[in-house]
Structures are given as structure tokens and as C-alpha cells.
Amino acid sequence: MSWNVFKFCTALRALGSIMIFLVLGIVGLSYYALVVVNYGPALFRGGLNSLTALLVLLLFHSLLVMLLWSYFSVVLTNPGCVPPHWRPESDEEKGDADPLMASEYNNGPGAGPEQGTVPSDSANRKIRFCRKCNQFKPPRCHHCSVCGRCVLKMDHHCVWVVNCVGAKNYKHFLLFLFYTFLETSLVTLSLLPYFLAFFSDGDITGTPGSLAAIFVTFILNLTFSLSVMGFLILHISLVAANTTTIEAYEKKTTPKWHFDLGRRKNFEQVFGMDKKYWFIPAYSQDDLKRMPNLQGLEYPMRSDTNLLQEL
């Protein structure tokens, strides 16, 4: 029996919102080392150093605003829950069976949803039912054992944001990764000369506390920059294929994927069609009206004909 890596997330429940304070603590330490100790004072020294400090500070604060905006958008945004008494529509119940849409209940004769089952119907294998929530599950919906609820288009439960990443906050999560990578890379490069000074023969100015803050901040930001870059590359590939982390894990044995609409449309399925909103954690009202998938219940699918042509 293979080990399901997603069950490991149940151990993360005990961490709770302490992770939010950890993130803010790292941000505060970076702010102190970069702004208060180094580039803030350099702003008033004049000359080329003053201009460099101004550019670094402007870029740092701009990225910091976008990072915190994206972060708290992920934390505070409901990833998407199944509406009460939701049932699949008749036109969504038809079509070829998909391995990821297969029924997750026993098809016992005469069994009903209140027992965690629905009547067997070979023509309606897309219908899914969650025993734990005692409700039907829309397409691409999964149950989170940490949150104790079904999440629409669930990607994973992220301990850093103390929330699930799903249909309604996946874009915010991606932007959080993007701005975190840019911010940590900027801090790393900006503090690199000061970090290298620790290994030089010259005297280093500053208090022991400020020097320790510079050293620790550089190491932390370098580590986060490299690790976040890996996660960012992973999720870019998932967006390009219009899949999630869970779906990528589940569909290894599936040669075709009905939700792959092409890279351009796959990108729009997450970020929307309005380009002005692509780099902020929000959607335009027009996109919310014309793109039902942003609500997490309906998703356009490709026909089998188009899929076969590419295989």
C-alpha cells in the first residue's frame, strides 16, 4: 500500500496561527536589517550611495506591500466551500467517466446520501459524495482533513498561511510566492556586500545586535529565496497544465486531462482575463461574472476529440 503524502498535513493542525507571527517576524527582521541598519542611514549620506539606497528602499517597500497584501489575502480568503444542499446538475452528470471523477462511495442498492452513498448508476460515474461532510462533491473538490471540510478545487493545505489553498485563493497564493521570491532575492542581493564583509580582514562597524541581524537575515532570505523558487516553478507548471497538486498526484495513471485548455486559457482560469488584475490578489467584476470557474463550481472541459488529436 503506497503512502499518501497528503495525510501528513493532519499533523500541522497544532501549529495554528503561530505561523502567521513567524512570517511577520521574518519580515520584521528583514526590515530592521535592510532599512533601519543599512540603507535607511545610507539615504542621508549623499552621492551615489544615497541614490542606490533610494532605489533599494523604493523597490523593497513596493514589494513588501504586495507581499503582505497577497499573504493576508490567502490567509483571510475562504478557499471555497460547497454550498449547502448543492447537487450536481443533470448536464454535468453526463459524459465519459473520468478516473478522477469516479464515485467515492459504495454503490449499494437502495442506499441514500444520508448513509454516505448514492444509488448506483453506470451512466453517472461523475457524481461524488463525501462521507465525512455528508454532501455531494463538485468536480475537482476534495476533503481537507485539517480544516474538516470539502474545499473547491483544493490544491493543498498550507501551514504557512494557516488555510487551504483552493479555487478562490489559489491566485493569491501564487502571487504570494511570486512576491516572496522577489522580496527575498532583493534582500539577499542588497545584504550580500555586508555579509561578505564578515569574512574580510577589515573592521566591521555596527553593534553586535545589528551585525547578528544582518547575518541571520541574509541566511534566512537566501534560504527562502531558493526554496520559494522551487515551489514557484512547480506551481507554474501546474497552472500551465490546469491542474492542482492533488490532481497531479492522482492523475499519474490518466493519459488525458479534460481540463487542459491550452496554456493561455489555463493561465486565465487562475488569473482571470483582465490583464490589469493579473499581478494583484483580486479579480475584476467582469471576470467574476463571465468566468464561473472562479467560483469553484463549474469548469470548462475539452472534448475527447481534441484530446485524441494531441495524444
From TrEMBL:
Q: Which residues cross the membrane?
A: 12-34, 54-77, 173-199, 211-234
**Subcellular location(s) per record:** Endomembrane system
Task: Provide the E.C. number(s) assigned to this enzyme.
Answer: 2.3.1.225
Q: Domain Palmitoyltransferase DHHC, which positions?
A: 126-251
Q: What is the protein's major site of localization?
A: membrane
Q: Does the keyword Nuclease apply?
A: no
Membrane-topology annotation of the record: Multi-pass membrane protein
Write the record's keywords in alphabetical order, separated by commas: Acyltransferase, Membrane, Transferase, Transmembrane, Transmembrane helix
Cell membrane listed as a keyword: no
Query: From the Swiss-Prot or TrEMBL record, what is one GO molecular function term?
Result: protein-cysteine S-palmitoyltransferase activity
Q: What class of enzyme is it?
A: transferase
Entry GO CC: endomembrane system
Catalyzed reaction equations = L-cysteinyl-[protein] + hexadecanoyl-CoA = S-hexadecanoyl-L-cysteinyl-[protein] + CoA
| Written domain comment of the UniProt record | The DHHC domain is required for palmitoyltransferase activity.
Q: Which family does it belong to?
A: Belongs to the DHHC palmitoyltransferase family.
Name-wise, this protein is S-acyltransferase
**Taxonomically, what lineage is the organism?**
Eukaryota, Viridiplantae, Streptophyta, Embryophyta, Tracheophyta
Which gene codes for it? LOC111491137
